[in-house]
Design goal:
Largest interface: A-B, 46 and 46 residues
Number of helices of chain A: 7
Order of helices and strands of chain A: HHEHHEEHHH
Radius of gyration of chain A: 21 Å
Structural class of chain A: mainly alpha
Helix content of chain A: 40-55%
Distance between the termini of chain A: 44 Å
Oligomer: homodimer
Chain lengths: 125, 125
DNA sequence: TCTGTATTTAACCTATCAGTTATTTAACCT
DNA sequence: AGGTTAAATAACTGATAGGTTAAATACAGA
């Protein structure tokens, strides 16, 4: 099922999530959603130094979220959405937890699994 | 629009993503998806010490992904999905990047934005 | 080939993270 | 009250993240 293109990093999802956890990197992605751009033009509007930008891009690249291609002396960065799709897939697993009302969910769980692991003698209600 | 329950941490999305970036914490969530559980019964199957588990739970709690409730001498942990819903919302904005074939997407971008910023012509100025 | 531009890499600094052991707090049960 | 269990907190440690400045690399153009 999983195409598992794990050539970049061992744990795909962890790499994706930790790459996305940085707001600067999300800003870079947002910018790239408008189309490919060279490093300099990503760095400037974010007030990033070139080395900082380059490092962020390396993180994004290792997570498979961005690819870089030489074009003359520039390096065009492009958004690669595959890891986002994978993330969406993972998230999907939890969808039922917010899709219906929370109340229903919890009620469902209560009856599905009367006691998780602890004994329920204290369960007055 | 945004309910903005930012009482826990400044940047919601960053907190959510960095909480989720740790595979141990994702395992905790997966376990909680089966129903609430006390800390000890989360720690044991993961080979986690109690302090380690407690710290992970604090991270998850600060991200709003988990709530803890005292019950006798135990502390029941429960999955809270709101941040996941928010994450799904964010992800949604990138959906078009993987929904259609990538080819179409790139073609679309090319015509939308003929030249990102790379302007080989501006150096003449 | 020399020069300027774009970007990366190296070396370093500080803060945060995930884990540890030891101690403390909280609630239960006699 | 005393003892036990559940969990949190404190204090410490090694690894990693994000930033810096300075040097190196890659390409383009005269």
């Amino acid at each position: 099922m999983s195409p598992a293109p794990d050539r970049l990093v061992p744990d795909h999802l962890s790499a994706t999530l930790s790459a996305l956890a940085d707001p600067t990197r999300r800003a870079i992605l947002a910018r790239l959603a408008q189309g490919p751009a060279p490093v300099g033009s990503l760095a400037a509007p974010l007030g990033l130094s070139l080395p900082a930008a380059s490092k962020h891009l390396t993180v994004l690249e290792r997570a498979g979220l961005v690819s870089r291609h030489r074009r003359a002396q520039w390096r065009d960065c492009r958004l690669e959405a595959a890891p986002l799709r994978e993330l969406a897939g993972w998230l999907q697993t939890y969808r039922r937890f917010w899709d219906d009302s929370m109340e229903r969910l919890h009620a469902y769980l209560e009856q599905l699994q009367p006691q998780p692991d602890t004994d329920q003698n204290h369960r007055g209600a």
